[in-house]
Amino acid sequence: MLEDRVQKHLDLLIERYPSISVCAEDIEKAYRILEECYEGDHKLLIAGNGGSAADSEHIAGELMKRFETARPVPPEFSQKLREIDPELGEGLAKNLERGLVAIPLVAHEALTTAYINDVDGLGVFAQQLYGFGRPGDVFLGISTSGNSKNVMCASVVARALGIKIIGLTGKNGGELATVADVAIRVPETSTYKIQELHLPVYHALCLMLEDRFFGAAE
């Protein structure tokens, strides 16, 4: 069972988007995988195409800084900042926020365009996953069809590295649903409708994680 403070986010999600109730069990499983990842001081690697690329960056933005809850740095780190530079350290101690490490594999233009041009377009996420990924990390593949070849290539590398895979896809699931440790298959088949449901799902996961690691907003 989810803790009450985390369950509330799942309950609110389903209250606002009743059709997502069919995904509740898989959302909980995905949360558990992410919770274990961050408890072990590991990271999340995210990839998708088009609107799902934008979602990849969106998710990283919610995890790497505050979403709804303040995340001040630890007092001992604040003190170190002030000792190193009293003036700059004061502002940094006040403004820096703790993050849950999330890397969108869509964001590194020089690397990705070089790899696409010099080597292979379909391996662009796989190459980054191989470079960044370590056992204990999690790969989140976002594909409305579940059949995006570059996402699937990254999934193969994730398996080889011992990295768990979460799929975020549509009703049909595609190949991604067959290889993922858990696949959240939102109950739509049109691309834009799938994307419209992906956002509240990953927002709920981000809220759950923030609540777990940084406490609920007042």
Give me the side-by-side strand order of the main sheet.
2-1-3-4-5
Number of domains: 2
CA-based gyration radius: 18 Å
What's the architecture of the largest domain in CATH terms?
3-Layer(aba) Sandwich
> How large is the count of helical segments?
10
Kindly report the average pLDDT value.
Answer: 95
**Main sheet summary:** 5 strands, parallel
Topology, please?
Elements lengths: L3 H13 L7 H16 L4 E4 L3 H13 L11 H10 L1 H10 L6 E3 L4 H10 L5 H9 L5 E5 L6 H13 L2 E6 L4 H6 L2 E4 L5 H24 L4
Helix pairs in contact: 1-10, 2-10, 3-10, 4-5, 6-7, 7-8
Structure in words:
The structure is a single chain. The chain is an alpha/beta fold and 218 residues long. 57% of the residues lie in helices and 10% in strands. A 5-stranded parallel sheet has the order 2-1-3-4-5, with helices on both faces. Helix 3 packs parallel to helix 10 (191-214) and helix 7 packs parallel to helix 8 (149-161). The longest helix has 24 residues, at 191-214. It is globular, with a radius of gyration of 18 Å.
Which structural traits does this protein have?
218 residues; alpha/beta; Rossmann fold; 2 domains; 57% helix
